[in-house]
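> forwarded from #structure-qc
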């Protein structure tokens, strides 16, 4: 997995499981991925070492991967979207309307 794929992977997992992280873990993750802060910047603003931020992020990766392994919410989301796309290619307006209703419930 290259760096861009890794970033996207963990951002998507964060969307599903981020609420299960501690507030501190959420903040570090958001600073790093959404605010594009460096490890040094995060460390300085939280008055901890750069190594501590790195360790926290590594721990977050493990937690997110563990949740996905056990619950599979992202995998199921992707599978549902693939099925929606398959049905959307059909020329049946009723099917397309039902797909839109299903998407609204997610």
């Amino acid at each position: 997995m290259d760096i861009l794929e890794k970033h996207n992977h963990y951002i998507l997992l964060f969307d599903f499981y981020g609420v299960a992280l501690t507030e501190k873990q959420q903040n570090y993750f958001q600073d790093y991925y959404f605010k594009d802060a460096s490890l040094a910047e995060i460390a300085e603003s939280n008055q901890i070492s750069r190594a501590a931020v790195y360790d926290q992020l590594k721990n977050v990766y493990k937690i997110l991967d563990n949740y996905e392994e056990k619950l599979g919410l992202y995998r199921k989301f992707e599978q549902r979207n693939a099925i929606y796309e398959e049905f959307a290619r059909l020329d049946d307006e009723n099917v397309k309307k039902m797909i839109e209703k299903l998407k609204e419930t997610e």
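QC bot note: The first helix runs from residue 3 to 17. The CA atoms of residues 43 and 50 lie 5 Å apart.
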